[in-house]
Amino acid sequence: MNKKLVLSAIVMILLFGSSILFAQNVSKGDTLIVSPVDESGAPLLGALNMAIHGDTTAAGERVHKVYKLQRGAQYILTEVIQGDFPLVIVADAPDENNRPPVIRCGLTPDGGNVNHWWQLYDDATFKNLWISGINLDGTGGISWIMQTANVPGKTMTYEGCVVEAPLTNWAVFNDPGGRNDYIIRDCVFMNIGNPTGTTWNGALFHSSNMDTVLIENSTFYKFGCFAARGAFHLEINHCSFIGSMVHPIDSHNQIKEIIKNSLFLNCHAFSDDFDEIKRHFDQEVKGLMNYAEIQWDPQALDSLYGPGGVYGYQYDPNGDGDLTADEMIWELKNNNWFYTQPVVDYWNQFDNVVANPWMNNYNKAMFENQEGPWSWTVWSYERDTADVIIDSTQVTVDHQPFQFFVEENTMNVDPGIINMNGTDELLAQNCINIRTEWAGGTV
Q1: Which of 21, 309, 366, 418 is buried most deeply by CB count within 10 Å?
Q2: How far is CA 212 from CA 2, 88, 254, 326, in A?
Q3: d(CA 28, CA 144)
């Protein structure tokens, strides 16, 4: 039996196990309710694709503004959705008797993989959906990315969604259009990226030139890195980040960054070894909260964000025509970070691996001496000693005043989250496996 027939058989089983309330699309005002089955009640592969493609007038104008999916059903993509209009896909909120509708990567008519969910060229809204990169036959989207925003100045909203993409080769969101806004509320992102064999895989965001990213009341579970990155304005509130290989937040391009009321558990579990630290510009372990040195060079700032800069976009919060370091905001309030014993044991197993801190000395100096210049200690390491601190050097850097760098009530306490199915041990073992392979020269 070929791959397409196997997938069709599985679809039949799963769809008929759901409570199908209608067998054809239903129009209600500006909303089209999309059925996952045809008029005879048979599962309809590509139902969502066909509904969107067919929803235009003879003049090419779109008939409906909203595509509403049925809870408990599955919608198998047969091609990448092209969102060249404001794309809105929603469902009613799930309850104890009705799970969210699932949108899955599927198979093309010739049996190939559908390796994106959608290409976006306008605003997009997704609400109360389960969006999966896993096909019913166990394969999945094999692209390096799952969603691409191709034009600037748009808003992408995810609300009440579950998003999984364990088979992507890099990240979920790519934004070559630039200067777009992302609003994420009440969502769960889980199992993002290849779960074994690599460190730099499984990002939420690939791009580094979004305008604004706002994330609230959301959970990021078992992901590689970069649950947020590269926005001029980033705000995170009441979120949980659980089990990442490397950086949960990439802060290198932020101008305004506010992170509050959030939990970081076993994030950047891989941490750094002596050789990696020596390659860092500040000769420091990265830490969970980390800014790079490029932010504090006015010429570098102007080349990125000034008129005619790399991003082609003037970001100037106070409106005086120049972006300077005194306009930058880094606010950390009421956050908790913690590492469980399996991760700590992994660090201790390797003489050259350093425990990952909340913030390294270089970044601490930004908060402790905002008028500048500041200094921090650089550590030198050697593999063949039990004492990792061999000598230290004071480094001094001039900078403009940082008026809005605030850290309050950072906690380092065990949040008591259940170690589901030995996840902590699996994360630590993956780190051990990679470190061991590196030492043997095979990676």
Answers
A1: 366
A2: 45, 20, 10, 19
A3: 37
